[in-house]
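INFO batch 0412 | record 1 of 1 | parsing
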Amino acid sequence: MRRYRFGEFILAPRRRLLLRAGREQPLIPRYFDLLVFLVERRGEAVHRRDIFDRVWSDVVVSDSALSQAIRTIRRVLGDDSREPRFVRTVSRHGYRFVFPDVIEEDDDGDWLEPAGAPSAPHAPADAPADPFEPLLERLTRSPQSAADDEDRREAAELLHARGTPEALRRLGTRPGHVRARALLRDTRRDVAGAGDVPIVGQPAALATAVVLVMLRLRRAAALAAARWASASFGGGLAGLLGGLAGGIILTTVPGSRASLGVAPVLAAIGACCGAAGGAGVGAGLSVAESIVRFRRASILIAGAAAGGGLAGFCAQWLARWSLSALVGVNIEIGGGIEGIAIGGAGGLGYSLATARLEGGLAAPRGRGRLQVATATALACACAALALALAGRPLVGGTVHLIAQTSRDAEATLTPLGRLIGEPGFGRRTAALIATAEGALFGVGLALGLTHRPRTHRMSRAASAVSTRSH
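INFO prediction complete | emitting tokens
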């Protein structure tokens, strides 16, 4: 392993240390990794998408998260974005570490200078006598533009660096304290060593919580919408494949009267139901994951169950109304309870499999993504099996019930029961089909949720071409 010396700084990736004149400068892990990445590729304009691919490889974050990380690194290094000594912004491309005299050496032996407690960035010579008040004025100012929002966020980070307890004490209940407290709470995990920012038991606690939720949703709105769409597509694709496979099996079972035309019909029904379920559960999970910072598992489960239940109740009402109005069929069709159960189970599997992924919306790759899909599929399969044993059919069982009420219908699943040794569509058949539906839906949902947007998946070749052009 190598270490790097530049100016009065020593950067030691192996020891996870950044020293300034022998004193540790704290950085949260992902920001430390970003600084190491920029120093390793010093002199080269590193594309933003290359940075996302390296530093945020297991989660998806917005561009503002990268801007915030660069702002924090500059503050720790005592850098100025207008006249940068260390990190320069390359317009419409990314960032470049520009300090000319970087010494690279082996990281071995006793090389640390005497170090005291972690220190804040060195204050400029013209710093005000009271460093808190100007920052509090910036923090409590009503934003008029996106630039004002970023300025207030920077003020919150600087206040954490100066001292969170003192900043909160001085904030008190002055005008604008609700939004200021929410912003301090939102930025505390981005500043190493920041103190806690309680909401419960503080002035205007409910209003502060609402502002905090809206703040996080607004910053993650585009990512949450993309995940919602991907989850809907994943659920729809799983439903289509399941319906198509079930239709083909049904047509080939001895004694079945079903024609090949049943397969595309069941595929279409499965796709619609899967897409609706994926949209509901995906939306609930995406919103919950965008705002959650603690009690992650319980909040994700609740969000997924709420989204699945809403989608299920809507589908239930629409199906009952359509059957009654169009063909005069009145049967008890489920949807809401099933959506809550499957959605909650999906949220449980997803939350357990992504418990260690922090700093963004979980999007692991390779084996990690397969583990998320497996855990979500198992959880959904178990929930579907429990529903079937309780006499609450999912899509396949509902199609069978509808087909039974129609004379000469080809979509009855009775032949599938005979295939596994039952005289008709019995409990074992219903349980087997429901379990398969749940597992397929879980796989599609998880793969959709963990899909990385194209902006985070630029190939190294394309990035290299873009870098040379700059």
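INFO post-check: The first helix runs from residue 29 to 40.
INFO record closed
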